[in-house]
Design brief:
Shape: globular
CATH superfamily: Nucleoside Triphosphate Pyrophosphohydrolase
CATH architecture: Alpha-Beta Complex
Order of helices and strands: EEEEEHEEEEH
Radius of gyration: 14 Å
CATH topology: Nucleoside Triphosphate Pyrophosphohydrolase
Structural class: alpha+beta
Number of strands: 9
Length: 140
């Protein structure tokens, strides 16, 4: 399943392809809390990096955990005006999975990993597309 959000204006957008994991534990989902809000674990793909390589790297950086990546949930893209990037077009693929062992401390000091009840997440996700992905994962 693929979802398109936002309205594309006649502007030049910065595309960013990313991959994210939705760690589910009962009725809770693992997210990273930042000053902007909640985000899924993951991020933009580096050159020649696969989705799984990106997710594993980002999870270590953001949470310190190794992960087991499961099935694909879907993908989404949005057109938005970002406060620092400008016209931004993130294109993201989402997978369910689980956290394994914590092997190090996260390197991003303003990122706090936590499990949050799904009903407490809805209005706290920074990106609507990631909230949509969580809904898809929980409906499986």
């Amino acid at each position: 399943m693929h979802k398109i959000l936002g309205t594309k204006e006649d502007k030049e957008y910065k595309d960013r392809i990313g991959a994210y994991i939705i760690p589910v534990k009962g009725n809770e989902v693992g997210v990273v809390e930042t000053p902007k809000g909640y985000f899924l674990l993951g991020g933009g793909l580096d050159a020649d990096e696969t989705d799984f390589q990106c997710i594993k790297r980002e999870c270590l950086e953001e949470s310190g955990y190794e992960v087991e990546i499961g099935g694909k949930v879907g993908s989404a893209e949005t057109y938005m005006l970002h406060p620092t990037i400008g016209y931004f077009h993130p294109i993201q693929t989402y997978y369910v999975g689980k956290l394994l062992d914590k092997v190090k401390e996260p390197v991003e000091p303003d990122h706090i990993f936590k499990f949050v009840k799904v009903e407490d997440i809805e209005n706290k996700m920074y990106l609507e597309m990631q909230r949509w992905a969580i809904e898809q994962a929980m409906a499986r």
